[in-house]
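hey m, so remember when u said the tokens were messed up on ur end? i reran from scratch. heres the input so u can diff it against urs
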Amino acid sequence: MDKVKYTLALLIFIASVSFASAQCDVRQRVMADGSLYNYVAPVMLYQTATRTLQGGVMTDGENYFLELRVTPKLVPMPDKVALTLTLTNDEKYTLDMFDRRSSANDSSLVTTFLMAKDKIEDFSTNEINTVDMMYDKQDSTYNVYTLKLHRALIKEHLECLKSKK
């Protein structure tokens, strides 16, 4: 009986260690310009029957970026996307668009936003309440995503990326 308890306890421990390390799985991506980025796999932040929002944090070793994938993409694609995050400290942070990409056969739009270096500490200690994406300032087309799951995404991904330096 003791062997069974010991084996069961060992399996639970191994499973919990595996689960914890899987959540901090830093991957690498080489961009078209040859630059190397470390990132944590994106997670689902928001999902309804008609739209989804996935997100993740990546770094080039000097700067941190928030990458968001919106499905379905807008047609025509916007030239500029403005992003405002409201964190649990009730502060609003506007991030500058860094890059956007989508292929003709893809139904999603991936937009990368630069996280200001002086705001990294705030992102490391607070969770996200809302994500407000404005696609076109002329007609004020925007989507507001109020997060229920993975509100600590930025905080957890920053911690993970910093621990793997």
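this time it looks ok to me. Residues 7-22 have pLDDT under 50 and may be disordered. if urs says something different then somethings off w ur setup not the seq
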